[in-house]
Amino acid sequence: CKCYILSLLLDLFSGYLGEDITLPSGADPSWSLIKIVWSIFTNNTWIATYRNGISTTEHFPQYSGRLTLNTTSGDLTIHSLKENDAIEYTVDLLNTDDEEKGNKIKLTVKQKLQQPSIKMVTSTSVESGCLMVVTCSSLDKGVNLSWSVEPVSVLTINKSNPSDSSAQLFAFVSTRESFANFTCISSRDTESVSSKPVTPKCESKICGKLLNVTLSLTYKRKILFSFLLCVQSSREQCK
Ligand SMILES: *[C@@H]1O[C@H](CO)[C@@H](O)[C@H](O)[C@H]1NC(C)=O
Ligand SMILES: *[C@@H]1O[C@H](CO)[C@@H](O)[C@H](O)[C@H]1NC(C)=O
Ligand SMILES: *[C@@H]1O[C@H](CO)[C@@H](O)[C@H](O)[C@H]1NC(C)=O
Ligand SMILES: *[C@@H]1O[C@H](CO)[C@@H](O)[C@H](O)[C@H]1NC(C)=O
Ligand SMILES: *[C@@H]1O[C@H](CO)[C@@H](O)[C@H](O)[C@H]1NC(C)=O
Ligand SMILES: *[C@@H]1O[C@H](CO)[C@@H](O)[C@H](O)[C@H]1NC(C)=O
């Protein structure tokens, strides 16, 4: 007698561009496989086969040198994933007891988030500290950018522009803190990646005094604007 076990489930798998992914055959571990056929397209173009004790993974040029077939489990590993590997895969199995099984897997290929980068816009030293403006940008679209600043006592205002995947950060580093360490984090769904941390030096110097530096976290935005005004007026006095 001949037995058929048909699996109508379509398994969804996703891998990352340039990385490897193993597509499971779904074979029962107790099975001893005598035939494995992995195919693609509706015309069942073979890509990897194991028949009569011979394993072949060089059927189709797109996968040349990029496939490993495990003849015990029937699992197929695709190495260094390409964008056009994102298609449907079919596997047909036959075991020593003449039992058959089929499985379909839909593979999606995602691009890993790229590391965002930080650029210094300006750093201006004043008597009581340094005003720093930094911009973070990512080559990826549709990511959320956020900042991590050390020490936490550094006063900051941030503004992000989701439309062009960039974010600005204004920070006032007081002489007491002496340095600030900025890291930008790019995230999308459950994935996230951090930029290299930057610890900028205060570059240009402005002569003159700050009139008031009673910065409070609650009124950050207003105080930084008044701080900028103060710097401009003291530059006038310098001449
Ligand atoms: C099967 O279909 C693919 C894509 O449609 C095509 O490139 C290939 O030549 C076809 N193979 C055969 C044997 O018809
Ligand atoms: C093939 O699959 C079996 C069963 O899952 C596993 O034990 C074995 O390590 C695999 N072989 C290789 C070369 O990965
Ligand atoms: C950036 O802005 C968001 C929303 O306004 C805020 O929740 C977050 O704490 C800010 N981050 C920093 C480092 O200031
Ligand atoms: C800046 O912060 C990062 C991440 O928190 C840390 O790995 C790095 O050592 C820090 N650099 C300095 C100079 O403090
Ligand atoms: C970005 O953040 C917002 C608010 O936290 C969230 O609703 C949205 O899903 C995030 N977008 C992505 C692509 O992670
Ligand atoms: C800071 O100085 C400016 C200019 O003299 C003044 O208008 C403003 O009220 C002062 N702010 C505080 C919080 O003292």
From TrEMBL:
InterPro entries: CD2/SLAM_rcpt (IPR015631), Ig-like_dom (IPR007110), Ig-like_dom_sf (IPR036179), Ig-like_fold (IPR013783). One of its GO terms (cellular component) is cell-cell junction. Residues 1-18 form the signal peptide. Residues 116-194 form the Ig-like domain. Keywords: Glycoprotein, Membrane, Signal. The keyword Cell membrane does not apply. Its main location: membrane. It is found in: Membrane. This is Ig-like domain-containing protein. It comes from Astatotilapia calliptera (Eastern happy). The lineage of its organism: Eukaryota, Metazoa, Chordata, Craniata, Vertebrata.
